[in-house]
Design brief:
single chain, alpha+beta, two-stranded antiparallel ribbon, globular, 5-stranded antiparallel sheet
């Protein structure tokens, strides 16, 4: 009897590649949704409304921290106990996430864990490199998402929740974030993110297993309202999806899976 699993994977990968070939194979986006993707041919394709319009990047900011400090944090086996509040700041879930390591904090999108680790890293930079070099390091990593909004001064600004995506400081668009992900400079970040989101399972990109980072972002014009982001890749197709106000982390993940035909996790 044939083993149908390899055949299914080949068909699924071919279908994902077909979805990157043009607008027709894609299901209709909902009003306000925007999608940027690149397939195996490397050609970027944009769909939906306002695909190049910037808005707060929300939890996608955590991928920038993974690029910047992920290797050091992984080597140091960072841990954080999220109770929902820390130093007067609040996580997005009132009860907190409990004890998380780097993989858990990325999977749960724990703002407070990334904030605590980010503050600690900046303290090390200031001690080891000096204020000016520490500021330059922060600007270099987050520059594509800062515009002209970097807080003024010669030293490094306070690392507040704005720096982990809970605010309007860091902005991007599906088209811009996809371009950032496709830059070869992000290759190591992509590999690290893949392993963290897949619980350190030893997948190679050639296995065509999807990782997806979703998260919630604020809507500056409507305090209390939210939008959602989802970004992911299987090594063949890389895509970034933005949902308009009303979306959230779970909704962003569900819509990404539906649009890109990504199977849900095994139960």
């Amino acid at each position: 009897m044939w083993n149908l699993k390899p055949i299914f994977l080949v068909v699924l990968c071919a279908f994902c590649a077909l979805r990157a070939a043009g607008p027709d194979p894609l299901p209709p986006l909902l009003p306000g949704e925007s999608l940027a993707l690149a397939g195996p041919d490397g050609v970027v394709r944009l769909y939906g409304e306002d695909v190049s319009r910037e808005s707060p990047m929300g939890s996608l900011a955590k991928l920038v921290w993974i690029k910047l400090e992920g290797m050091e944090w992984a080597a140091g086996d960072v841990r954080f106990n999220c109770t929902g509040t820390w130093q007067g700041y609040h996580c997005w879930t009132p009860k907190g996430h409990g004890k998380v390591d780097l993989a858990g904090a990325l999977q749960e999108s724990c703002n407070l864990a990334f904030l605590a680790w980010g503050q600690a890293s900046v303290g090390y930079w200031q001690r080891d490199y000096g204020e000016g070099a520490a500021r330059a390091r922060l600007e270099d990593a987050f520059g594509p998402f800062l515009g002209n909004r970097m807080p003024p001064g010669e030293g490094i600004p306070p690392i507040t929740p704005d720096w982990v995506g809970d605010g309007d400081l860091l902005r991007t668009s599906p088209a811009a974030f996809l371009a950032w992900m496709l830059d070869p400079a992000q290759d190591e970040m992509l590999r690290r993110t893949r392993r963290l989101l897949l619980n350190f399972r030893d997948f190679n990109f050639k296995d065509n297993v999807w990782w997806i980072k979703s998260g919630t972002a604020p809507v500056p014009s409507d305090p209390g309202a939210t939008s959602a982001w989802a970004a992911g890749s299987n090594g063949l197709v890389t895509a970034v999806l933005h949902l308009p106000r009303g979306g959230g982390k779970a909704e962003g993940l569900a819509r990404f899976r539906a649009i890109m035909m990504v199977p849900g996790p095994k139960k």
